Amino acid sequence: MRWQISQEYENNAFLKVANNKLMEINFNLQTEYYHQSSPAKVERHAKEILEMVEITRLTNINYEK
Hints:
By secondary structure, the protein is mainly α. The protein contains two helices and no strands. The protein has one domain. The chain is rod-shaped, with a radius of gyration of 27 Å.
């Protein structure tokens, strides 16, 4: 009986350590997600990789018949 209790305490300690590691990994992944999806990152990607340009003035084209 004592052996089983000591094993349970050991398992509990291992699970606490594993949980802490997973919480740290989760925090790092959430931070990376927020960084990757930030408006500044999206805009820089559009300008550099997709070669999009910012619209500086509006031009209206009217087609007359």
